[in-house]
Write a structure and sequence with these properties.
By secondary structure, this protein is mainly alpha-helical. It has 13 helices and 5 strands. The strands form 2 sheets. A 3-stranded parallel β-sheet has the order 1-2-3. A two-stranded parallel ribbon has the order 4-5. The protein is globular. The structure holds adenosine-5'-triphosphate and magnesium ion.
């Protein structure tokens, strides 16, 4: 890492020798799906050897939607096991659960003091998830991006590998961190979103104007990482297309088919052009059939590994160790923040 990069990202003095730091999270808000994998978690696994990586099950974020005790417990365990099955290796990163490190919630409160109401109101995720019913949604849904900012800046994060839907939240994080630094002195690194060119925005199978989402009430709209092969085949055969029959990548005019082509390209070693050429003049049937097999082949090894990890029962020990390692860093940062703001830190 060069000194110039350090200055550009706003790294505090004394960290120039360190590898760049990566932080990212996934909510235990439902079924971990193919979009989460292609847009984010696959990149966590690929990049953990290159960067100093911290990955988190952001359970406090899941409180922004309605939860039950049972769904929370089940989702934390299954999402965490799936992250490990997808290749995230605790030997090469810190992997923990957000609520186990109380500094996230505390820093969120502090950062709310440098976040503007109007900024949060402009967040498109809030508009999408509140569905125009702002009066009835929880305040946690509104302040969610501040907690996300706290998650990120708590660890001197340079890069945040996420799907395209998170770009606006990372920009807000930079604004909040910059404003804090201006007011109280250089404290936080200004992070950058790391959004890949491919796979960063996988759309729903039932509506290509919406991204594939864990919290969707229609299980047919997403491919869950743990869906059985026959369920995957059925979901893909039922995926909405259009009244044409041309397998052509044209997101403007053929958003549904283009989304399926993207998924196919990401789950195989074929390029978009090769896929278009292969199915020319054949209609959607053979294309969808082969696409389903490509998805099954991508998910099968992850599913096998998932069941091995579950049986091993190693998850809680992994998360406990991750919590201890994350807490050391979070504690140091929060103390620094409080000192800068004039709190008495004993
Ligand atoms: P929810 O609907 O509860 O918000 P989600 O599917 O959006 O769930 P998150 O836990 O919010 O999942 O996001 C985890 C990561 O997956 C983030 O980096 C996010 O950008 C990425 N991601 C989410 N949906 C997609 C998608 N459809 N395509 C690509 N990446 C995605
Ligand atoms: Mg989301």
């Amino acid at each position: 890492m060069t000194a110039t990069t350090t200055t550009q990202t706003g790294s505090p003095a004394g960290t120039t020798e360190r590898r760049q730091r990566v932080f990212s999270g996934i909510q235990p808000s439902g079924n971990f799906h193919l979009g989460n994998y292609l847009g984010a978690i696959r990149n966590w696994a690929n990049q953990q050897y290159q960067y100093e990586s911290i990955f988190c099950i952001v359970d406090l974020h899941a409180l922004s939607l309605d939860i039950t005790r049972e769904s929370m417990m089940q989702n934390i365990t299954s999402v965490a096991n799936t992250v490990l099955a997808a290749g995230v290796d605790p030997e090469h990163c810190i992997f923990f659960v957000q609520s186990d490190v109380h500094e996230h919630a505390e820093l969120c409160w502090i950062l709310q003091s440098v976040t503007r109401f109007g900024e949060l109101r402009r967040m498109t995720q809030f508009k999408d998830k509140s569905g125009g019913e702002e009066e009835g949604v929880s305040a946690a849904l509104f302040t969610y991006p501040v907690l996300q900012a706290a998650d990120i800046v708590l660890y001197d994060t340079h890069l945040v590998p996420v799907g395209a839907d998170q770009r606006q939240h990372i920009e807000l994080t930079r604004d909040i961190a910059y404003r804090f630094n201006q007011r109280f002195g250089q404290t936080f690194v200004l992070p950058q979103a790391d959004i890949k060119e491919h796979g960063a925005r996988i759309m729903s199978l039932d509506d290509a104007s919406k991204k594939m989402s864990k919290s969707s009430s229609n299980a047919g709209s997403y491919i869950a990482m743990l869906d059985a092969p026959d369920v995957i085949r059925k979901k893909i055969s039922r995926a909405v297309t259009d009244s044409g029959r041309e397998v052509k990548f044209d997101p403007q005019n053929k958003p549904e088919v283009s989304n399926l082509i993207s998924i196919y390209a990401e789950c195989s070693d074929k390029t978009i052009a090769e896929i278009e050429a292969q199915y020319e003049g054949q209609g959607y049937g053979p294309f969808k059939k082969d696409l389903a097999e490509a998805v099954v082949a991508t998910l099968e090894p992850i599913q096998i590994r998932y069941h091995e990890i579950r049986q091993s029962g190693e998850l809680y020990e992994v998360l406990k160790q991750g919590k201890e390692r994350a807490a050391v860093q979070a504690d140091a940062m929060l103390k620094q923040v409080k000192e800068k703001m004039g709190f008495i830190v004993l």
